[in-house]
């Protein structure tokens, strides 16, 4: 395999790097070439149960260890991920096609382990003497076994943002990677072992939604399940949790994010940033601004500038080449989905740029051209559903009330942005948008490091972030103690 001497595939269960117990594997293909990159273990129900049992057995001593000692393992893992970040980028490139030039996710994972290794002193309850004759207090304690199910579009990032806060708070973890991008995660499993985590504390399995994802959702010993992925799967997980042990479920789901461009906006900046938002990772980003609304008076100018920016900035090619910034779609299923949406888009709106596959010399990869549609009815399927490809719809508006209503007319609410130089309007619109995140004169993927991230409506429930994620993994216990005379 190109430039990659060792392709890791094994799972980490109870401190051992293992194959599936029944020997089953599934093939992972390089989406730039369609060649097989690796055969990866398909965790069986037994393997998944074994990982949960190992996590359960490891919980008492891990939770009793105390924050400062747990932190040492996280720090070691942060350093190992950082040392191996280029290899991790290459492993994602040959499984889900993200160009190495835009892969900052391993570094982000390392930063998360580093951050949470310092965050344990803030695991605190409260105390009061407001109740006469009593001292009252709250204790913040770990839940036990936490399951983490992650998608393929940024595996290292989600591994870091979820497992670091779960572990530092004293929980033990079973993480399932996506069947489309298990290789970088399998490498991190090796690094977890190298960092010396006690057996069972951090288990990592690979496989499809069924069986392993479903077993985790139904498991009576899993107390929290944190999921990032599609709204469809999120609903299934929520159902399984409700039918079994009412485990706490945190859901980070899909989006159909709008960008609102008013006539007084900095046009050049708005064009560059909205283009980047929907092109990054070939449009396979939950918060990509896939709907752009431009005020009518500047629409023609905006569209021309957007097309020119896309034509001059998009560099499709082998994701392993440092000059490439536009990789293939993650696999054949994603590729066919995106092309089908594009065909439907041609019927509902006006195609202004792109509209099909990109031929990249010397490859048979799943490349799709950055595509722009204009004048698409608000009710069209392509306006309502997440395409998860480099496809943007640019529509127009005349008034603020009109564009806010259009932006909010969706089941999703992950990220919205507004471009204007009018501060009052910026804040009015930010307040009116039904979205977990709002960018003013900026758009996704711009985020604030200490802000919560999460969706309104069907984009999810719960929030993640440096000041928020530890709460997801801590129970609150009230203790009331009488201090009056006997
Ligand atoms: P997906 O829902 O198909 O899969 C996500 C994970 O769920 C995978 O590990 C998969 O194996 C597992 N899974 C599938 N069926 C399951 C089941 N029945 N029970 C348990 N687990 C199951 O999503 P995907 O295609 O991997 O990822 C893309 C989606 O993720 C997009 O909708 C995107 O918007 C969303 N996403 C959201 C965020 C966010 O933070 N809100 C971030 C990235 C991606």
UniProtKB/TrEMBL annotation:
Pfam families: Aldedh
Active site as annotated: 252
EC number: 1.2.1.3
GO molecular function: aldehyde dehydrogenase (NAD+) activity
Residue ranges of every copy of the Aldehyde dehydrogenase domain listed in the record: 20-479
Membrane spanning stretches: none
Top-level class of the enzyme under EC nomenclature: oxidoreductase
UniProt-listed SUPFAM superfamilies: ALDH-like
InterPro entries, per the entry: Ald_DH/histidinol_DH, Ald_DH_C, Ald_DH_CS_GLU, Ald_DH_N, Aldehyde_DH_dom
Keyword field: Oxidoreductase
Catalysis: reaction(s): an aldehyde + NAD(+) + H2O = a carboxylate + NADH + 2 H(+)
Family, as annotated: Belongs to the aldehyde dehydrogenase family.
Official protein name in the record: aldehyde dehydrogenase (NAD(+))
Species: Dichotomopilus funicola
């Amino acid at each position: 395999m190109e430039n990659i001497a060792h392709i890791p595939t094994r799972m980490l269960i109870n401190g051992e790097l293992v194959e599936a117990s029944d020997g089953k594997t599934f093939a992972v293909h390089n989406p730039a070439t369609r060649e097989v990159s690796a055969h990866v273990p398909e965790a069986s129900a037994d393997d998944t149960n074994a990982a949960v049992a190992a996590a359960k057995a490891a919980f008492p001593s891990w939770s009793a260890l105390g924050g400062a000692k747990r932190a040492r393992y996280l720090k070691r893992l942060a350093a190992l991920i950082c040392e191996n970040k280029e290899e991790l980028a290459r492993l994602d490139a040959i499984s889900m096609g993200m160009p190495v030039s835009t892969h900052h996710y391993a570094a982000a994972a390392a930063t998360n382990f580093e951050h949470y290794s310092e965050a344990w002193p803030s695991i605190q309850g409260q105390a009061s003497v407001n109740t006469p004759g009593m001292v009252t207090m709250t204790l913040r304690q770990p839940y036990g076994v936490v399951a983490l199910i992650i998608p393929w579009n940024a595996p290292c990032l989600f591994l870091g943002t979820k497992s670091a806060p779960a572990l530092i708070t004293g929980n033990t973890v079973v993480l399932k990677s996506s069947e489309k991008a298990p290789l970088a995660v399998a490498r991190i499993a090796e690094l977890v072992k190298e960092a010396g985590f006690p057996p069972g504390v951090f288990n990592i399995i690979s496989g499809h939604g069924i069986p392993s994802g479903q077993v985790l959702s139904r498991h009576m010993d899993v107390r929290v399940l944190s999921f990032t992925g599609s709204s469809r799967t999120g609903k299934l997980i929520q159902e399984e949790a409700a039918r079994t042990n009412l485990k706490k479920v945190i859901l980070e789901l899909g989006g159909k994010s709008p960008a609102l461009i008013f006539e007084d906006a900095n046009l050049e900046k708005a064009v560059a940033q909205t283009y980047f938002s929907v092109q990054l990772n070939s449009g396979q980003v939950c918060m990509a601004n896939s709907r752009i609304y431009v005020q009518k008076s500047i629409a023609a100018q905006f569209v021309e500038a957007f097309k020119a920016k896309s034509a001059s900035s998009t560099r499709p090619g082998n994701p392993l080449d440092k000059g490439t910034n536009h990789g293939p779609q993650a696999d054949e299923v994603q590729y066919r989905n995106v092309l089908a949406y594009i065909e439907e888009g041609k019927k509902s709106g006006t195609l202004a740029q792109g509209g099909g596959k990109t031929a990249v010399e010397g490859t048979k990869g799943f490349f799709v051209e950055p595509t722009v549609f204009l004048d698409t009815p608000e009710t069209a399927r392509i306006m309502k559903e997440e395409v998860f490809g480099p496809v943007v719809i640019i529509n127009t508006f005349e008034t603020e009330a009109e564009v806010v209503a259009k932006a909010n007319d969706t089941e999703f609410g992950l990220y919205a942005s507004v471009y204007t130089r009018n501060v009052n309007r910026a804040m009015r619109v930010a307040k009116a948008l039904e979205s977990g995140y709002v960018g003013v004169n900026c758009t996704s993927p711009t985020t604030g490091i200490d802000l919560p991230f999460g969706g309104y409506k069907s984009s999810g429930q719960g929030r993640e972030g440096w000041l928020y994620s530890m709460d997801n993994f801590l129970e609150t216990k009230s203790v009331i103690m009488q201090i009056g005379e006997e």
